[in-house]
Amino acid sequence: MEIEESQSYSFLVGTYPENPSQGIYKLEFSPTENTLKGTLLLDSIQNPSFVLAKSDNSRFFSVEEIASEQGGNVVMLGGSGYPLETLFTAPTVGSAPCYLALSKDEKWLVVGNYTGGNFSVFSAERDSLRLVQTLSHSGKSVNTARQEAPHVHSTVFSPNGKYLMVADLGTDKIYQYEFNPSEEKPLELKRELNMEPGDGPRHSVFSPSGEDYVVLLELTGAINIYSFDGDEFAFKQRESIVEEDFTGEHGAAEIRFSPEGQYLYTSNRGDDNSIAVFSKNGNGDYERIQIIKSGGIKPRNFIITRDGEYLLSAHETSNDIIVFKRDTKTGLLSQSDLRTQINSPVYLFETTSY
């Protein structure tokens, strides 16, 4: 299909570099010109697999996903072109950092350490990162290959800024922490949400209205849906992200809402290489309305543009990013002919033009 709209889009791309000449990229997408182009922003950085930016693009952040006894790093960056300026590098106090989250006021940065089974909180107000707290989980679950220990996979602030939701693939739990930035140690555990044994919670997302909270379960290829009243969660529903007759390996990877909150999208980077679409009906329940091939191999990440017009799917193994047109009325996706090659793209973050 051809793309005709005039809007243009800009993204940060996190990758797993194969050599020192690769790293963090800027991706520019112009529907008018039918172009999708990646430009290197920073090389010689180790495994910048998760990247994000402050809302004014004044600062960028990246993990260095290093699995070692010394742990990984989080890097604060500045500038607008190649190479970005490294302003500050801080140890994350855990091995293989894989997720970053900024607080609502963008003064606090949380880093989840997958292999370390813990997460760290940093003050990020100036041109430095000050460690203020590290919290560790304990336990394991039934999948001996993947759940032999805690594995913090994501850290997500609630829309009201009161809570931090931490998904631990290794313990089959979501941990709800109260966030009080006025305290010396700003996080305190409030409650735990238990998943089914072997689910492996990976990522989670709140609906734009804040009324729903959805957990993506990597190891069983499903989602758990909860209602949220601003403080408490109530389980509502569980749905599969694959067809009922699917028999391959699950690998649920990413989950995102459309901007208006009517539609929910998930990717499966396992044997299915697909994107599933769910619609919220009048009763408040979600029903799956589409499963479409992602167009590449291992769709570890995808993003929906802020205006809801497009979905871009990043494929770790086929080394490409593919554009889908999104029908804003029905939520359904259709693959375009537009794609670009970037080595092992694993995270996309939309920025304002800079």
CATH fold-level topology: Methylamine Dehydrogenase, Chain H
Q: What are the low-pLDDT stretches, counting only 5+ consecutive residues below 50? A: none
CATH architecture: 7 Propeller
CATH superfamily: YVTN repeat-like/Quinoprotein amine dehydrogenase
The helix-and-strand class reads mainly beta
Task: State the end-to-end distance.
Answer: 29 Å
CATH class designation = Mainly Beta
**Spatial order of the strands forming the largest sheet:** 3-2-1-28
Number of helical segments with 4 or more residues: 0
Largest sheet features: 4 strands, antiparallel
In round numbers, the mean pLDDT is 96
How much beta, percentage-wise?
Answer: over 45%
Number of domains: 1
Q: How do the helices and strands follow one another from N- to C-terminus?
A: EEEEEEEEEEEEEEEEEEEEEEEEEEEE
Alpha-carbon Rg, integer = 19 Å
Dominant shape: globular
Structure description:
This protein is 0% helix and 52% strand. The chain has 354 residues and is an all-beta fold. The radius of gyration is 19 Å and the shape is globular. The chain has a single domain (91-351), classed as Methylamine Dehydrogenase, Chain H (7 Propeller). The relative contact order is 0.13. The two termini are 29 Å apart. It has strands at 9-15, 23-30, 35-43, 51-53, 60-64, 73-78, 85-91, 97-102, 108-113, 118-123, 130-136, 152-157, 163-168, 173-179, 187-194, 201-206, 212-217, 222-228, 233-240, 252-257, 263-268, 274-280, 286-293, 301-304, 310-315, 320-326, 333-341, 345-351. Strands 3-2-1-28 form a 4-stranded antiparallel β-sheet, with no helix packed on it. It is built from no helices and 28 strands.
